[in-house]
Design a protein that fits this description.
- The chain has helices at 7-23, 25-30, 36-39, 51-59, 62-74, 79-94, 99-115, 124-140, 163-172, 176-189, 191-202, 208-224, 229-243, 254-265, 280-292, 295-303.
- With 304 residues, it is mostly helical.
- The longest helix is centred in the N-terminal third of the chain and has 17 residues, at 7-23.
């Protein structure tokens, strides 16, 4: 949207923006209002060419979504773009803080890969199922009015700090702004740097969603692009900070101490993977160890 040059133009743009905000993206587009108005909401993330599709996922009533998606496919929109838009709509809305939300995010990549095993009209079925659940939950949470993720200004890491330790320490302090700002700096350097830094905070506990979330987010970069690394990985920052008060271990206790100790003791850091093949007897023995041992014994057996 161009910068207004007159008072009349300025007031017209303000009025247009207020109308889009009040009636929603889909209705506004149907009335011929500029799609850019929805993307330029104050303090909102925007996703370039995908923004109209992302807004579609957020603003459409769930019972109207699938016909609209089918129309998009018939008009030439690639199925891959629908998945990408769903991923980004999910991240912007929930930011890793909603149970159904992050489970839906984790289902996006499997749904896409399932679609690639199908042909014809059946290809869209697994994708549509997940996108319906995504939009249904977005709508139940109030749509765009309650987005969790907003733009973040990158900030440098403390002088001499190890990147992952600095992010982890900010998470431990529940310093959301600081952790996300440092992660933004790392993501600007490389997606890999941001991912590795997030893992320092993830390793503080062994709760399953905490562990799985960054790997699912990383996998989805194959769809949305590594330029979205900060958007995708900061969901783990939100989850880790939210979970600080209810994890079942004493704060920064067993996992954050035991696992690094075992990695050092068995010299696993930097070691090349082994070449030994696991036969049935070995798999059976290790499985029984996991079932019958204490967590400490099982972790030691796995490290060995």
């Amino acid at each position: 949207m161009k910068t207004p040059s007159t008072r009349r133009e300025f007031l017209a743009q303000v009025g247009q923006g207020m109308m889009v905000a009040s009636i929603g993206y889909e209705v506004a587009t149907g009335l011929g209002l500029s799609p850019a108005a929805a993307a330029e909401a104050p303090n909102a993330l925007a996703f370039g060419d995908l923004e109209p599709l992302v807004c579609l996922m957020q603003e459409t009533a769930a019972d109207q979504l699938l016909p609209k998606l089918a129309d998009r496919l018939r008009s030439g929109t690639p199925l891959r773009d629908l998945v990408r838009a769903g991923v980004l709509a999910n991240a912007r809305t929930f930011g890793g803080e909603d149970y159904i939300g992050f489970h839906t995010m984790m289902a996006m990549s499997p749904a896409w890969h399932m679609s690639q095993e199908l042909s014809g009209g059946e290809q869209a079925l697994p994708v549509f199922k997940v996108l319906y659940r995504n939009t249904n939950n977005i709508q139940s949470q109030g749509g765009r009015k309650h987005e969790v993720l907003h733009p973040v200004t990158a900030e440098p890491l403390p002088a001499g700090a190890v990147a992952g330790e600095a992010v982890r320490d900010a998470v431990r302090r529940k310093d959301m702004k600081g952790a996300e700002a440092m992660l933004a700096t790392l993501a600007a350097q490389s997606a890999e740097d941001a991912f590795n830094a997030v893992l320092y905070a993830v390793h503080d506990d062994d709760e399953v969603h905490r562990v799985v979330m960054p790997y699912r987010a990383w996998d989805l970069l194959n769809l949305v692009g590594k330029e979205q690394a900060h958007t995708m990985l900061r969901q783990s920052i939100h989850y880790c900070i939210d979970s600080q008060g209810w994890n079942r271990h004493s704060q920064y206790g067993e996992p954050s101490q035991l696992l690094p100790k075992l990695l050092d003791e068995h010299k696993l850091m930097g070691r090349d993977p082994g070449t030994r093949k696991a036969d049935d007897a070995w798999v059976d023995k290790l499985s029984r160890t996991f079932f019958e041992s204490s967590p400490e014994q099982a972790a030691a057996a796995a490290a060995a």
